[in-house]
Specification:
323 residues; alpha/beta; Conserved hypothetical protein from pyrococcus furiosus pfu- 392566-001, ParB domain; 5-stranded mixed sheet; 52% helix
């Protein structure tokens, strides 16, 4: 019985007459215009695309000059494309009422696309802690599948690829310390509401939690984190570093509950108590000339009590006149 042998793929007739230069040009990546509706977002894209002033500036630039830097996409089996680098340009193009965006189409594996997506977005000037956290984690997992070691505790054993752990590889690429990479990845264990407070700390918003305390809090269970969130929302206070350390220690002992959280956070730490300061010269200039220095505090307190009674009486009189 004659075996089926695979047919040899013959070159197209036109290809036989191409010059070497033409073949080289055909192999180069080209920029093509692709419909915005044909480009899907990258799965679990960790970077926020926000309609803010920066986005409006990008929109205005696109209206005036077009998209100057092409986006990078990869083809999908269904005939559409997946965005790798250019989510903000795509969104700004929509705001500019554009139907297409210039793109470079490149064949990429999932891991290759993930690494390029992370690296290209981390070059931005403003990157939030939450964005770094999930971006570093995605790159870590991609490097793991490519052969890098991903343990975050031991760095003394032999590595599989290029004699580096994946953590060290990311640290070198991002110009960060390995410990910093580890801390950011820990943030992915925070519930979304607490992670938003870490972003608030960078943006100067409230309520906010610093990076170091938030890393300690990330070791709490989800249930414990929601207990903590309830206390924060009800009392408008967030844990200091020492309080976060106490919370972590109790959690590790399985002794943390809502009562313990209240007990720890109800004690105001020195760095949480605002200090009131006065200009001594301003106060002394208003005091009687013959007052002794050690009597100043009592005198000021009596004046404040008197002024407080005056304000209350004034408010009462105003209410009487309004009737």
């Amino acid at each position: 019985m004659q075996k089926n042998t695979p047919k040899m793929q013959l070159p197209k007739l036109d290809d036989l007459f191409l010059t070497e230069e033409e073949r080289r040009q055909n192999s180069l990546e080209k920029v093509i215009d692709i419909k915005l509706s044909d480009i899907d977002d990258f799965p679990k894209h960790p970077f926020k695309v926000i309609e803010n002033e920066d986005m409006y500036n990008m929109r205005d630039s696109i209206i005036e000059n077009g998209v100057l830097v092409p986006a990078l996409v990869r083809p999908k089996p269904n005939g559409k494309y997946e965005m790798v680098s250019g989510h903000r340009r795509k969104f700004a193009s929509k705001l500019a009422n554009k139907e297409t965006i210039p793109c470079i189409v490149r064949e990429l594996t999932d891991d290759e696309a993930t690494i390029i997506m992370v690296d290209s977005n981390l070059q931005r000037e403003k990157v939030l802690p939450s964005e770094k956290a999930f971006a570093y984690k995605m790159k870590l997992e991609a490097l793991k599948r490519q052969g890098f070691r991903t343990d975050l505790t031991s760095v003394q054993l032999e590595q599989k690829l290029k004699n580096k752990t994946s953590r060290k590889k990311i640290a070198e690429d991002m110009n960060e310390s390995e410990a910093t990479i580890q801390r950011y990845i820990r943030l992915t264990n925070l519930i979304p509401e607490l992670l938003e407070m870490v972003d608030n700390d960078v943006m100067g918003l409230t309520p906010s939690i610093g990076l170091t305390p938030s890393v300690k809090i990330s070791f709490l269970t989800q249930e414990e984190q929601y207990f903590l969130l309830d206390y924060i929302e009800c009392n408008e206070v967030t844990p200091s570093l020492s309080q976060a350390i106490d919370l972590k220690e109790l959690s590790e002992k399985h002794e943390l509950d809502s009562d313990k959280i209240q007990e720890i956070l109800s004690v105001r730490k020195p760095n949480q108590i605002p200090k009131i300061s006065f200009h001594e010269e301003k106060i002394i200039s208003l005091l009687p000339k013959n007052i002794e220095y050690d009597q100043i505090e009592d005198y000021v307190v009596k004046c404040m009590k008197f002024y407080s009674r005056y304000l209350k009486q004034k408010e009462k009189s105003a209410k009487m006149d309004a009737r």
